[in-house]
Specification:
three-stranded antiparallel β-sheet, 9 strands, 8 helices, alpha+beta, Aminopeptidase
């Protein structure tokens, strides 16, 4: 499919169901066999930290194909002083429109809107090889940790202007709504959508069978049961395993692509 002409606009109430449906499609490939992001979107619009001025949809070919939704979050420094920042997510794009610039267009447009609204920075949890393409860096570079004091490649930050995070360090907190999605609620909510077969994750064996003995042992040492687990880990993280040379990493990228994931920093 050729890259579509994309129109961006604010989400309207009459779009809510279509956005929840596309979010469901975008995130259905979950190791659990189903996703919860469509219920998250449904609930995010109702919480005080929701920012309607940054809730944008992307239209192409006469329909909504993408959405980005923002909420306010905070950084709490060691003295207890809090600093307001943003987080976004889900960032949803229909599978058939992924890798066509829809997500990037939504991000760059809303980054500029957020800057004009006076927000200082965006902090997210996301794929560590994708989001750096639009300016995100590991949050640890700014002295930030998760609420429980951890840090990892998928935890990233983007200052919206020069020096926006200077002198600000501490723990990052998001709204409790993100932790409110139990499986019972998700499955009940999902009944109102068209029936959909549960997703079956891809076994790691499809990759192991393509690798030589040394690389296979290295991947086995990562403790992954499913290939899907690589979608949450950076290329830097995976390639650090002893025994994975560039040839092996090329195979990893190729196998991921064969199963529908554009993975890695290349």
């Amino acid at each position: 499919m050729a890259k579509p002409d994309i129109t961006l606009r604010l989400e309207r109430p009459e779009d809510y169901r279509a956005v929840e449906e596309l979010t469901r499609e975008a995130f259905w490939r979950s190791i659990r066999g189903f996703c919860d992001e469509h219920l998250l979107v449904h609930r995010l619009r109702k919480v005080p930290v929701f920012i309607p001025e940054l809730d944008y949809v992307a239209e192409a070919d006469g329909r909504i194909v993408g959405n980005i939704i923002y909420t306010r979050a905070r950084i709490e420094d060691p003295s207890g002083i809090t600093h307001e920042v943003l987080t976004f997510g889900p960032l949803s794009v229909l599978p058939e429109y992924q890798n066509m610039g829809v997500g990037k267009a939504l991000m760059l447009h809303t980054f500029e809107k957020a800057r004009k609204l006076g927000y200082r920075a965006i902090v997210i949890f996301g794929h560590p090889d994708y989001y750096p393409r639009v300016g995100f860096r590991r949050a640890s570079e700014f002295g930030l940790t998760t609420s429980d004091g951890n840090t990892f490649d998928a935890f990233m930050a983007l200052p919206l202007y020069e020096g926006a995070l200077d002198g600000i360090q501490g723990r990052f907190f998001i709204d409790p709504v993100f932790e409110s999605l139990d499986d019972k609620d998700v499955l009940e909510f999902d009944k109102s959508f068209p029936p959909k077969d549960r997703y079956v994750p891809v076994p790691i064996k499809v990759l192991l069978d393509r690798l030589d003995a040394g690389a296979r042992e290295a991947v086995e040492g990562l403790g992954c049961t499913y290939l899907d687990e690589f979608t949450h880990r950076s290329e830097r993280d995976i390639s650090s395993a002893t025994g994975l040379d560039e040839k092996a990493m090329d195979i990893v990228r190729q196998v991921m692509l064969e199963h529908g994931w554009r993975w890695g920093s290349k």
